[in-house]
Write a structure and sequence with these properties.
The protein is built from 23 helices and ten strands. The protein is of the alpha/beta class. The radius of gyration is 35 Å and the shape is elongated. The structure holds adenosine-5'-diphosphate.
Length: about 625
């Protein structure tokens, strides 16, 4: 996992960073405006009291009377109060923007990509691993796009701190010591050049040392250790479906020990990890020496400004101003260097982000609209369709030809791995056939607009998920919906009696994640709700993947006898393991090793020699036992 990373050059890192900012400025400009304003105010406000304090002290030390001192004091107090108020306001605005806009914008950037990606890429384990890595980097220390928000603020602050400091410190060099003073030598250009060199040298040295220290972070891959640590310490302990196991086998101690072990792992962040050791060694030393260099430089500034004041170049109050301003200057440069180091380190984490955002859409997107037909006359045909999953060389479907009209009930049966789900995925255009074509009313489905074509299908997948939200909203998949229709759909799906028992009806929250009085629904009930959701959508094609897998035999019988009413004039395609359900269908397609080996009505197929009868007999045995 911790493969050696090829480090980006500085230029590449900056190009990555620029692209990151372009993404952000488009996705959430207001967040960056607020951050910039906040950090600008933070950088500049300390200079306000610094300036007025110097004037005040100069007035007092220079023997200025009350006429000079009082206005200065008033100016100091008022400006400080105003600066404080500006700072609080900017900080509040920034916080509010960050809390309400930053993370939603992050989600939007990634989820829009995830939703617009070809399904085969979403389904690909590599894409999932990439996205997991991006999320982990983000959760770990905001590495990736989020870090750019923070560094943006730091940059604005550093640059303005430098500009403010320059404005306040120019006169330190330009005001001369009177020529008759023994300290007049301080006016020499050499002296000024020396100070400039010292400033540049100390900033460069402490910046380089900081950069060197930061480099340990960018070269350190903590993903593995962090993942293990979070899993054993937090995730495993709090996951509900593990709670029983943890108690029964007293796994808590085991998990805690594992977590502690992970903490000490080379790739983690404990004392014995690579980063922990670096902190005690070269990295720690770099941080320390960097701080010491800055402080030594401050000492020299004190000496220089103090001597000039002593020589009579300016009042003693100005010494505090110059020292404060030059401290700000040094800090501004150091912060800038640090932020550059941070940006460079962060660019490595932008790599997976762009790899993800740049996944191309290879699926052909047509422009025909599927006509909204009131007669729902849609005909679908698979014409000699074969399919291989990307990266495999086995045929998941081979030479499948099939035609079905609207209003038919088609059952798709076959053993595990025979290609049933793949058939559905191709039908819903989650994948395109490797060979052959699928036609809708005689036209290749690739030529239709993708969203238009998808809207023809309502699918209940085997692993469908309901949301921990009100029942009615689950059915309508929307916040505002037609209540009468939602109720009607629930009743048709067989949820009526249970709905009547719920005191809050459609407003009952499912599950208890968000509401204490939420209801826990059984697998069978969840299935009925999912079915009601399909009915509410009212698409011409309904696809049910193992619709009764979670139902007991009685509930299954109930659902099936109602199916014909439920689906009305729609086309229904069921994938089923229980052949008893096929009796209710007009047509059964039997899949075996990716091919349709038999097709016909249940009664005829049971009579005939073949795969269907073999499957039927195997199940009949099971039903007789159960019966
Ligand atoms: P069924 O629904 O009948 O159980 P599937 O359509 O899921 O069968 O699978 C058909 C074949 O395709 C199986 O050999 C399965 O291993 C393979 N397969 C299914 N999904 C993928 C995938 N995402 N990547 C690679 N092979 C897959």
């Amino acid at each position: 996992m911790a493969e050696k990373k090829e480090r980006l050059s500085f230029r590449q890192a900056m190009a990555y960073t620029r692209r990151g900012y372009a993404i952000w400025f488009k996705a959430a400009p207001e967040v960056f405006l607020a951050a910039g304003a906040d950090r600008a105010v933070t950088a500049l406000t300390p200079y306000v009291p610094l300036y007025f304090t110097a004037r005040l002290v100069n007035a007092i030390a220079g023997g200025g009377g009350p006429g000079e001192v009082w206005p200065m004091l008033a100016a100091l107090l008022i400006s400080t109060a105003l600066a404080g108020a500006a700072r609080a306001a900017a900080s509040n605005w920034n916080q509010a923007m960050e809390n309400s806009h930053l993370h939603p914008a992050w989600n939007r950037i990634f989820f829009e990509k995830l939703l617009s990606m070809d399904f085969c890429d979403v389904d690909d384990a590599k894409t999932q691993a990439l996205f997991t890595q991006i999320r982990q980097n983000n959760n770990w220390s905001s590495w990736g796009l989020t870090k750019l928000h923070w560094t943006f603020g730091c940059m604005v602050e550093a640059v303005l701190r430098i500009l403010g400091a320059l404005a306040l410190s120019v006169s330190l060099f330009t005001l001369p010591v009177p020529a008759d003073s023994p300290l007049a030598g301080l006016n020499s250009p050499w002296c000024m050049a020396g100070m400039g060199l010292l400033l540049a040298g100390s900033v460069a040295l402490s910046g380089a040392l900081l950069n060197r220290a930061e480099r340990y972070w960018s070269e350190y891959d903590g993903t593995q250790g962090n993942r293990g640590f979070s899993f054993f310490y937090f995730i495993a302990m709090q996951e509900r479906h593990r709670a029983a196991d943890i108690r029964t086998y007293t796994q808590d101690k085991f998990l805690e020990a594992k977590g502690r072990e992970m903490l000490d792992d080379e790739t983690s962040f404990g004392p014995n990890s690579a980063i922990g050791k670096a902190g005690r060694g070269a990295m720690g030393i770099s941080y320390t020496v960097s701080g010491a260099v800055s402080q030594a430089f401050m000492g020299v500034i004190y000496l220089f400004a103090g001597l000039k004041a002593l020589g009579g170049a300016f009042g003693v109050g100005s010494v505090t101003q110059y020292v404060g301003a030059l401290a700000g200057l040094a800090r501004g440069f150091t912060d800038l260097a640090e932020v550059m180091g941070e940006l460079r380190a962060n660019a490595e984490y932008l790599k997976p982000v762009y790899e993800f955002l740049d996944i191309p859409n290879n699926m052909y997107q047509g422009s025909l609209t599927t006509e909204k037909r009131s007669d729902r006359k849609y005909e679908i045909e698979f014409r000699d369709v074969s399919f291989q999953y990307p990266g495999t060389d086995t045929w998941a479907l081979r030479h499948v030809s099939m035609k079905f009209d609207v209003g038919e009930r088609l059952a798709v049966v076959g053993e595990n791995g025979s290609g049933k789900t793949t058939f559905i995925k191709l039908l819903c255009r989650l994948y395109d056939p490797t060979e052959g074509e699928i036609l809708l009313n005689g036209i290749d489905i690739r030529k239709y607009r993708y969203d238009n074509y998808l809207a023809l299908f309502s699918v209940v997948f085997q692993d469908f998920k309901l949301l921990s939200q009100p029942l009615g909203q689950n059915v309508a998949a929307a916040e505002n919906y037609d209540r009468a229709r939602a109720e009607e759909c629930l009743k048709r799906a067989g949820f009526g009696p249970r709905l009547a028992e719920l005191p809050r009806g459609l407003d009952t929250c499912l599950y208890r994640e968000f509401e204490d009085d939420g209801v826990e629904v059984s697998g069978g009930e969840a299935q009925k709700i999912a079915l009601a959701r399909v009915l509410y959508q009212d698409a011409p094609f309904i696809v049910l993947d193992e619709p009764t897998a979670a139902l007991d035999p009685e509930a299954e019988a109930e659902v099936y006898t109602k199916f014909n009413d439920i689906v009305e004039d729609k086309t229904a395609i069921y994938i089923s393991h229980r052949l008893s359900s096929c009796r209710f269908c007009d047509e059964v397609a039997v899949f075996d090793h990716g091919q349709v080996v038999q097709q016909g009505v249940h009664d005829a197929l049971v009579e005939a020699e073949g795969k269907y009868r073999a499957l039927w007999e195997a199940q009949a045995q099971y039903y007789r036992k159960e019966g």
